[in-house]
Amino acid sequence: MFRWLKKFKVTIVVIIALIGFFIWWNGTRGYDDQALAGLPDLSGIDESSVLEDGGSKLEASYQEYYDGLVKQDIKDAEDFSLTLNGADFSAISDKGSKKLDQLGDRQGSVVALEDEDSWVEYTFDIPADGFYQMSMDYYAMEGKRSSIVRSVQVDGSYPFYQSKKLEFQRMWEETGETWKDNQGNEFNPRREEVFGWQNRAFKDSEGKSYEPFRYYLTKGKHTIRIGNIREPGAIGAIYISAPEHIPTYADVQKQYADNGYKPVSNILIKVQAEEATLRSDPTLKRIEDREPDTEPFNKDAIALNSFGGASWRTGGQWAQWEVEVPESGLYEIGARYGQWFLNGIPVQRSITIDGKFPFKEMNEMTFPYKSEWQISKFGAEDDSDPYLFYLEKGKHTIRMEVQVGALGPLLESVTSTVRKMSLIGREVIQVTGTNPDVNGDWTLERNIVNLVPRLQLMAKHFDDVIQGLYALGVDKGSSEVSTLYEARDVLLSMANDTKSIPARMTQFTDLQSSLGTWVSGLTKQSMVLDYLIVKSPDQKWPRPAAGWLERTGTMAYDFFTSFTKDYSNVGNSYEGEQVLEVWIARGRDWVDIIKQMIDEDFTPNTGIKVNVNVIPANNSQVLLLANTSGIAPDVALGVDAEVPIDYAVRNGLVNLKDFSDYDDVAARFRSGALIPYQYNGGSYALPENQNFNMLFYRKDIMEQLGYSEEDIPDTWDEVMNMIPILQQNGMDFYYPHAPNNPALAINEFAPFLFQQNGEFYKDNGKKSNLDSPEALNAFKMWTGLFTNYKIQKQADFYNRFRSGEMPIGVADYSTYVLLSTAAPELTGWWGMKPMPGIKQADGQINRSTGGLAQTGIIFKSTDMKQESWDFLKWWTSAETQERFGSELESLLGVEARWNTANIEALKQMPWSTSDIDAIMEQWNWFKEREVVIGGYYTTRHIANIWNEVVLNGKITREAVEEGVRSINKELRKKREEFGLDESADDSSSSATSAASATTTDQGEGGDKP
């Protein structure tokens, strides 16, 4: 037995060693740093594309703008400072802007920009040509909790695209102390906004530039316009000055000597990072770390003993701490930190003390990568010689702000090169078409100007970035560099064998997507802090991490106690009969918020105690097993939309129509959103959130193609007329298709069916209706996009939208979030409108679409039926949904924006006015598909029909008829299995009849068929 165990351990060790070797080899395999040695001189090659001759409307990046002017020998201005009072404007918008007196603690008048698209202009004189920097005193007024976003135009234009989106953060603080549940676990207190005046320089909102923007201004009169992009705020003053030159540490050391400053002694102060006094973002919060040296440490429960982590990652996010020193003198400052988020790549922070940089080096503090805790001695890169900081006796503030900094120019270079790759890809498609003969000789070198040297130049750009990363200290084995090596080598290979290019276009476009993802990933500069250190030079630095023995002991303790801990329970846990049991199929962070809201709001107001348990998301099997074994909860949230009918047919759920106020609660949602939860005259769930598709388009590219805002397609006929024009210009239209997820195919098909006035089922859900004329037309239209119009079957729409290869397409709301947060260069150059539809006889355009999401249900086994309904009503109310959405976005960022199904709550979310108007217009046509027993066969065969028609070339009618036969067979089988009474179904309202009933609602646009 022991011999077998010994062999098993040896086997495990060997496997781990092989895996480690493979990972190392994969990161370093075959990458030749001399690959470019044989290239000819490329210095005189024109990299421009013939596609740029039409004049790109996209502004240059700041780096391109600044570098171009430096080449023209433009210098920094000197000895100039000008203050423009906020209320002394030269022009102002008619709506959404006004003067205010004595806002906050500021005396005198200021100007407030309250509505989106409001603006204010100032006129001023400049004494000499040169670079100037600007900053602004601003006051964030009450809004939707997001940071303020403003645009800055100089003399009627944007000098660079970053000037279209400058972020001015709000201020947040914790209210009260942390709280603990009755299991001893610690929870974050709420973060509330602090209102007050701030000053911020006009700088890159992504933190890709060390210093504030330098605007080139010529001698004479100029006009600056500040535009409101998002959130209300006031302007106190605008400052225009010659660029500030911060002294280096060497210069400051000389000042120390001249002033006679001496180091202090016998002082060691730790400032716990989780006790930040202010922060720029409510997502910045306390987090738990289980390393034994992390202070304070609780081996038996959750202790929120550190700060930041994955949420402290976006350029411009800052946190601030207070420290009080007992005497004046020179101190050393450092921090205990963890930076294990970017493999092998350091992150940066800018650090100010009392609002100023002590010296230039603090604007670019680097925190190297390591897979464990470290001590940073704010000083030279190797920490061998910590900097000295002069601090007067008393209180001081230390602020650390996320800064991409040194990586910024490298990331800009990659983004610029990817754009050039996109242009070459479009030029190739113009020559070869979208479906070229890969064996043909296309002589691309003759048809595309400078094709080979342009490919070689792009490869060189990637190689330069690789060398730049190594210069920053990136490990040569880092997986983060492999994407660049692959891009470089693919481009060199294409340059060496241009005949292979048509056959490799899929690889070429996929590579662009990978590079876009790579850039997005490296802009996330996450770091976790345990504490700041302020000490005299004679004191030792704390050790960075506990010894291996202590860590092993902690891991062993956690392992053995894991067998007795209840990890599914969240927050306060109650015992007794009168406790509502709620299971939630979502992530732990999400459930923590819900439980906190229950304990703060629902329980105090209703007296109903609630236990909350986490179950795996998208795992309805857990609920089914619990229901079968008699331990089902009272209420479940986060339940997939297809699940309620499965339980309803088994008589496992409460019919919500039994409650007298059901109609009032149902009015919170679009009537079409309730269709999937209706069965046999009852309704068995309430929707929590909703997905929806919209049409996204690039304004700049569509204008180049001759499409104004008014010409953007409203109908599928217009889309199909536009696709050939796109393809003639090397571009394409996007419609979603997920080949590896057949369950999504039904959602991709549903809009075409509903817009043809078709339904999925007939005879009250007993038979498939997919062989109806309406459904056949829908299938032909859907598959025709891929067969007749040859749009791509699979694509990364977000990255190809950014590159311009797919300037228009249909996508869900998550694309909106991505474009809003991760595509700054497209600010102002993309739009969103309701998805295309089919024109009806009355002239209306039917845009019907849906998107099954998650629901809340009540199990029939509950002994607390009314209490469960009270909970479900509270949870789906506008107030609760709005607060949850705000708290969720505060915790996880805008990427986690809650797409609530509650109409009023959605309007309160921090969407822009124009976008929420487009969403609400689309929601007027929101309609879900009905769910019936055996309906999974419909899902399966819709995917099969697409595959047969698009991939195998089968006639649409044949593929549909085969699918319908199988679907009907399964529907009949399932109805027999559950003993459904045919006559009862005929006399009652099933899912299909309920669907028909909802389509007549014209109150707010109607959920039309």
Automatic annotation (TrEMBL):
UniProt-annotated stretches for the region Disordered: 977-1009
Signal peptide boundaries: none
Entries under InterPro entries matching the protein: Bact_solute-bd_prot1, SBP
Taxonomic superkingdom: Bacteria
Transmembrane segments: 7-25
Name the record gives this protein: ABC-type glycerol-3-phosphate transport system substrate-binding protein
Organism annotation: Paenibacillus cellulosilyticus
Pfam families given in the database record: SBP_bac_1 (PF01547)
Compositionally biased residues, Low complexity: 986-1001
Upper classification of the organism: Bacteria, Bacillati, Bacillota, Bacilli, Bacillales
Assigned keywords, A-Z: Membrane, Transmembrane, Transmembrane helix
